[in-house]
């Protein structure tokens, strides 16, 4: 039976560690990397099947971007609808 003063016993204690921040160092695209580099084995592989070309093939990038924009708008709408339930 739990203690009346401490009714909840946590078996997994949360450890809070201090955060360290380092300055962001972007990858240098001007200078080549030092030392030998390896290529991924997927670079030399040919695709197994070719994509079927249809009337909509040139428009696929635009259609994909419109689809992702729509999904993003739905996500933003859900977040705005549930903003009142956010615990602070």
Would you write up a description of this structure?
With 88 residues, the protein is mainly alpha-helical. It has a domain at 53-88. It contains one helix and no strands. It has one helix at residues 60-81. The longest helix has 22 residues, at 60-81. The two termini are 32 Å apart.
| Rg computed from alpha carbons, rounded to a whole number of angstroms | 26 Å
Q: Report the average pLDDT across residues.
A: 80
Low-confidence stretches: none
Q: How do the SSEs run, as a string of H and E?
A: H
- Taking the alpha carbons of the first and last residues, their distance comes to 32 Å
Please identify the oligomeric state.
Answer: single chain
Derived structural class: mainly alpha
The gross shape turns out to be flat
Largest sheet: none
Q: What's the helical proportion of residues? A: 25-40%
Strand element count: 0
Enumerate how many helices there are, as a single number.
1
Question: Strands, helices and their partners?
Answer:
Blueprint: H1 60-81
Supply database-style keywords.
0% strand; 88 residues
Brief description of this entry?
It contains one helix and no strands.
